[in-house]
Amino acid sequence: MMIPERPTLERRVLAALDKASGSGPRITVVLGGCGTGRTSLLLRLRDLIGRNQAQYVDVERVATTPERFLHALRDSSPFPPQVPGGGSREPGAREAFDAALAFLDTARGQGAMPATFLLDEFLELRTFESFPGLRTVLRDLIGALAASGNRFVLTSRYVARALRLLRDAPPQFEIIHVTPLSAGEVRATLPGGHDEDHVRGGGHGGAEDEVEHQRDELARLVQALADGRPSYARAIAETATSMEARGGADPVSALAALLAPGGQLAQSCRFCYELRLHRARGYGALKAILEVLAQEEPLTLTEIAQRLYRTPGSTKDYLSWLEDVDLIVSRQKRYSFADPMLRLWVRLHCRPVPPGDEDIARELHAYVQTRLPHAEPALALAVTEAEREKSWGIIEID
To answer: Which of 121, 234, 262, 344 is the most exposed, fewest CB within 10 Å of its CB?
Structure first.
């Protein structure tokens, strides 16, 4: 399965880059949670704009020290530096960061055209705030980009933090929230290589229509189970289609295999869970709240405090820290998980022992009923059969 193309989203970002405010080009900020396709979007934009005109920077990987960030930025760039370096002397932290901002401002593409920088996870530059003279790194970055004639696309998985930072940003900044994949976008990424096998020797018309119907139905189920998140959808669809030789593409059994200990989605959910918790305060208490919400949601502040045996005041702090890293959301003063798949993972894996086949079958059945409350009898039967056979522990994932 290829990386999902998001032509509507891509066009929207490109259109924003072409706009101009009274102070200069627009600066696009793309926000979305884990697995929503921000990185693949930037890599696609780099190819659409042209690799000689656009530079992709994985800030999360290279935001180590200001000096090393400066070298990484320059050394990987298709743009020649416009500002001379600081001679043979290695610059200090403040000087290196200022030089990096100057490079972002003055670099030019072919024909002296404005350069485009695609800064993935730009909030990771906050790492530099522990260095002398760099207490306002992100504010300095926002000011420098707003004053530049170059073009920028920024992304972050931390929606709440980015919105807070940009609350008083200059008017050039345009925020775009990544929307879930539609069933049609999922359908466009499904492998089509098996279609010939289905219709070979069977003529046209009815057989081809049936194949198309099966693909449409698979895409609809995958979209619902994945909550429209590209990384989840890709994993479920790839695994489901790899199972076709054993009796048809079954997204429910595919999801069970992916969430089993060591499965691809089990690993990616664990990464997201730990990454966000380590970016927040109150690690242990926050895990406890997530376990409470995994058992029942939505809950009010008072209900969560009672289950934690903590005061409402301290519980409110914990909840605000979870909201700060987008692990939970609050609607009408009731709290729930931001990502339903992550909630399923917590129910399965945040326990004293790894989940067994029966645990996965039980939890997956409840999840499917939540995501597809009017599921067709065939889908319900698939879940029941999976629960009885408990076969996903040996499913091969190609």
So the answer is: 262
